[in-house]
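Retro notes, structure queue

What went well: the backlog is down to a handful. What didn't: a couple of records were mislabeled last round, so from now on we paste the full input next to the output in the thread. Example, using Exonuclease SbcC from Bosea minatitlanensis:
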Amino acid sequence: MLATWFASKAAKPLLIAGAFALVLLLAALGFWRGFAVIERLQDKAVKAAIALRDADWKAQIDAANAKAASAREAQALKADAASRAASAEISRLSDSLAKKEALNAALPNADACGLDRDRVRLLNDGQ
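Corresponding output:
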């Protein structure tokens, strides 16, 4: 009975409509899955772009940090050289002062008031 109904003229439009609906359903399913694949590809592309941007920023930060470290090291070397030069100058001036004090003490009339010619010469030697 079912076989005769499928063979009848009344069932043919229903079968055609059912087949068309099935094709439309399969097309919609394929369209939906295609969009899912496209979304996954977009997500991968976004993640790759973010990783590339982050790597670029990290490289720029590392370069800036290396440049700053180099500048700090150069500044420390300059400060050390300036400190050594200042220490040498202080030592030289201290030695000069000690020498002048010894020469001043060796001059006669150490208890005299005022400056005599020899003491003025001692003061003028340092200039």
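Agreed that this is the format going forward. Reviewer comment attached to the example: The chain has a mean pLDDT of 88.
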